[in-house]
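Hey L., structure's done. Input below.
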Amino acid sequence: MGLLSNRIERSSLKPGDHIYSWRSAYIYAHHGIYVGDNRVIHFTRRGQEVGTGTILDVLLVSSGPARSHVPCSTCAPAQEGHGVVTSCLDCFLSGGILYRFEYDVSPALFLAKARGGTCTLAVSDADDEVVHRAKYLLENGFGCYNVFKKNCEDFAIYCKTGLLVLDHSTMGQSGQAVSIIGGPLAAVLSTPLRLVTTNIYGMVATAVGVYCASRYAADIGMRMDVVKVPVEELTSRLAAGMLQVIEPSLPSLPAPAD
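Output:
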């Protein structure tokens, strides 16, 4: 894997790998856990990759891959209401390129990969534990999908590390969610610094610095508001309502004209 790309060949895949594939226009990536035998376990919203109940639906769905109308002969249809699904590698990639998420990277490498959702400072657990978590959550669920606080990347990171952000008033552990918020936030926070420098290059450098600092501080490997939760305890907490993310409601569609 190079500095700017985590692209890999299928032949190098092994069970327990956190993999992802960028969708059209590179607006977002879909993440999952490879469990062997050409199977991937991943987290969705009611069987769909995206769907937030917000204006982001327009951007994310429009950038998504073109879906084949021919059912896959090896993948069972997604069950309504069960967000954790399994599919073959081809269906997971949907024609995209295969990438592997990196763990335990150095701070320098983390900051060099300016786009979030590709690596983390956190250390991965053993591959067999990762596969166990993914398969357990396939049977028992991972709660409600939320694009900013509990998405496919959050699911994969939990499977790899067992770490969860318990304060749901803050951002989840997803790097690409931080990137979506971090870019505009960096621009806003750096605006007052225009009084320090009026040079356009200085302002851009400041905005980039604020963005990188926010990404670094929000990474799951650096945060103080995370705790290691065994997967069996996670599902019992979800069932008891002790860990809950409220799923945003989807806007109702207008009734068809007569």
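Residues 51-57, 182-191, 245-254 have pLDDT under 50 and may be disordered. The first helix runs from residue 56 to 63.

-- N.
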